[in-house]
Amino acid sequence: MTRMMAIVEREMRKFFRSPALMMVSLTLPLVQLIILGNAFGGKIRGARMGVVDYDRGSQALKIEEAFNSIAVNIRTFTTVAYDDEQKAREDVRTGKIDAAVIIPAQYSRRVLAGDAPAIGLVVDNSDQTMSSSLEAEMQSLVDALNAPAIQQKVVQQIALEIVELYPYVEYMKYLLAGSIALAMFVAVMIGGGMLYIDDKARGVHEGYLVTPITKLELVLGLNLAGTIKAVMSGISITVIGSLLAGLGVIFRPESALLLLLLIISTSIAFNGMMFLMMVRIEDPLVPRAMFGVLNTLLFFPSGAISPVSGLPKWLRAIANVDPFTYAVHGFKSILLKDGGFTAIRWDLLFLVGFGIATLMLATPLFKRTL
Amino acid sequence: MNAGKPGAAIAVENIVKRYGDFEAVKGISFEVAEGEIFGLLGPNGAGKSTLIRMMTTLIPVTAGKAIIAGHDVSREPDAVRRTIGVIPQALTSDIDLTVEENLSIYAKLYEVPKAQRIRSMNELLEAVDLLKWRHAQTKTLSGGMRRRLEIARGLIHNPRIFFLDEPTTGLDPVSRVAVWEMLNHLKNTRHLTMLLTTHYMDEADRLCDRIAIVDHGKLVALDTPMALKASVPGNNVVEAQFTRESAEWPARLKQLAGVTAVESQSAAMYRLLTSNGGLTTTQLVEMVTSHGEAIKSLSVQNTTLDDVFVHYTGRALRDEQVKAQGFIMPPRPGMQP
Fold first, then answer.
1. pTM beyond cutoff 0.90
2. CA angle centred on A185, ends A179 and A190, rounded to 5°
3. CA–CA dist A29, A186 (Å, integer)
4. The complex's ipTM?
5. Most A CBs within 10 Å: which of B98, B109, B151, as the mutation test of the A interface?
6. Are residues B30 and B146 in the same domain?
7. What CA–CA distance (Å, rounded) separates B255 from B244?
8. Looking at the partner chain, which of A6, A209, A369 has a beta carbon nearest the beta carbon of B105?
9. Shared domain check, B122 and B12
10. Which of B71, B94, B156 best probes binding to A when mutated, by most A CB atoms within 10 angstroms?
């Protein structure tokens, strides 16, 4: 125990002497949270919609009035008048405008005659976010135009009433769970993986190996130190990220305790995984080269930036064994939904089980000799 | 189980280390008595570090046996580790920790009780002259100071046997002398048995009671420095450089009184082993004058370990062979090539 704690003491003293390490492990997730959180998930504002009106009738005027209302109120787009459809299409293609609405000749007459009138919408579908947003806006406008002027007393259509369980979740809040997991991963990668290999290459481990410390004491000491570093990183980003994203859940003792449990479990899982990956590596360049690959492979399929259910089957298979997935699910359950212990118990079980299993696999692989 | 003579602190019997087809150590045997300073002398890649790493349990022994303080390194590695202190070749102290923290962590790794830990740290820091640097971060120390810290670190648990792998490599001459004096002082005050590897002849000559010369993984000579020097033909070495090279110099030099061997060092420079340095030098000057030649430089000295080393290893010849064959030394285990 004394020998194991000596390893922990050494690692922690080194860690506190290098505050840059803590800063680096927090920087990437925080930058990601702030930049991605603000860049994505916001509503489209100020798009330019070309309008080619071949009709110029009363019904076309109603559409233009609706456009003006949008431009003034929700400001999704403003309109630019065109005389020529070809010119409008060309401008969509070259990006001068974002979409174009074509109101055909005889549109008003066909509306009044009930003769299946159609409005054309030209979108640049190379930008899925913009085109989907404008399509949705136009669809709701068309639905409004189709609605009868006088509502029937007995509603005959099926209506979908949406009940939102939680207040509107901004993307930054959605992203926070992934950012916490990422910060902990970076802390484990740098503070565990890279430093471990660097020490090995510098011969520092040679000094330990001539002492009577056992293999298990050395492995547990290194992993306990790595876990403590990752927990500190996790707590820091949870607090900073929650304040940035405007989440007050950290101030509720029960939720804070559950978050701490999740942070500890995630740290155990990440450390075990990292130790298994690094246990036989000698070259200090390898963990640096692996960093980008691991980050992509583990972070993106985890549901941190988009739901796991939207992934293809093979990617979902990775997500199923990826500790990031369970960490992200757990953090979301507490941060966004205040789900309580029941919501995270399987995540905790998987993370701790994963950590112990990987550590058990890594320990026999750890060489007590050079 | 004890092997070798009773009282031997270290007994190595026919020890072998192989890396695939490469045999780094080829059946070396020797014994080191209690309280002795024993040197392993050899060129880089001779197998000295491999040998010391086997004795300190860092790498497994392929064949043969090493008994350290009565414990077999293969069967009782933990018992061996408790009785030895080791200074690896590289500087392995933690640069982010202070001098005192480095010692304290290692004392804990050896489970030294707190009271003894504090006492040992104070004694050792005083012995290695680092008392006033105890709170300094190791990264602020010079190379020599770091080496002294590592020597203190290796002794923190009061070991019986101390292994030092090239303890002064990379140090400036002043620091080297300081380390030598410190090691001598520690040996006398702590009654340590020391085994050190070095490729510095003066270090081996000054520190060691006995020296084993290792080359190509084999033990080529083993004796006291005095006996080793006496074993080389000739009592003196005369080095002469002429202003002009001539193919006749070797034959002319061999005819001088007392000369037992003539070695060509470089262009117009020769090294003579002689039993009578004074007479050889006098005749040399006369011979050069009579041939109308001139001497550029001339020195006479007693036989040194350098001469012993060249005599036993033929290093110059070997270096040529290494270059000709494009031989690449395999990397040390745990080190990057």
1. no
2. 125
3. 9
4. 0.73
5. B109
6. yes
7. 19
8. A6
9. yes
10. B94
